[in-house]
Amino acid sequence: MNHHQNHVRQQLADQLAEAIAEALKTDLAEQERVLLVISGGSTPVMFFQTLSTKSLPWERVDITLADERWVDEQSSESNARLVREHLVQDKASSARFVPLTSTAATPEQGVADVSDQITFLAWPASAVVLGMGSDGHTASLFPDSRELDLALSSGEPLVAVRTPSQPQPRITLSADRLHQARRHFLHITGEDKRTVLARALAGDDARKLPIRAFFSCPLAIYWAP
Ligand code: 6PG
Questions:
Q1: Are 130 and 187 in contact (CB under 8 A)?
Q2: Nearest-CA neighbor of 60 among 98, 94, 109?
Q3: 27 ligand 1 Cβ < 6 A
């Protein structure tokens, strides 16, 4: 990433952090607790770091993930580790982060317990921040996953997912649960993802490009080169 690219991606992260902080503050004026659902991966690190510096009553904010790799929280692959290291810090250190893993050996064995863990959170979320892969996946709704149809249609909050394109088993909020939010944001960067987004916007089949499942609601697209 060159200096200019880094600069515009930092600007994007700052703008998204501002929008999320405002959304949380707006909802906190109306309700005791609010919920923020975020995605992992590499894109959101700058966004997490800026959001953690925002002044708001973080002790009244629940945070959970859109999806998770079924790995130990100490693993470099863990989204929970990413959130604890970059978001639940600074002013946001008093937020209540609820991870999507349990001590079960597999997500299939853990999905019921994790569903219990997230049931009491302040649904509908104030905001869901989605990422997108170059295959058009979002959260862990992967086009090559045999559980995709289930994850797109289930009324269950969480689905265990296995997919040939990913090294670890995953657990993901279902599309239905990800829709239980007042605001949806898509945070992506780079020319490759711009091309994938353009292709996704030109069609309707979410099984081919699962990000399409979120074109049925207002979606704020935060993209930078
Ligand atoms: C994950 C994320 C996933 C991510 C996309 C984009 O667990 O990896 O939740 O859905 O948003 O894979 O990842 P990058 O930001 O690393 O491109």
A1: yes
A2: 94
A3: no
**N residues, the chain:** 225
**pTM, rounded to two decimals:** 0.98
Distance in Å, CA 201 to ligand 1 centroid: 19
Among all chains, which residue has been given the structure tokens 């089949």? Answer: 205
> E strands of 27-66, at which residues?
34-38, 61-65
Q: CA–CA separation, 130 vs 101, rounded Å? A: 19
Atom of ligand 1 nearest to the CA of 66: 9
1 pLDDT tier (thresholds 50, 70, 90): confident
What is the dotted CATH code of the domain comprising 1-223? 3.40.50.1360
Torsion over CA: 71, 161, 123, 208 (sign): positive
Q: Residue 64's beta-bridge partner residues?
A: 37, 98
Give 141-197 pLDDT, tens digit per residue.
999 999 999 999 999 999 999 999 999 999 999 999 999 999 999 999 999 999 999
pLDDT digits (tens, 9 = 90+) for 185-225: 999 999 999 999 999 999 999 999 999 999 999 999 999 99
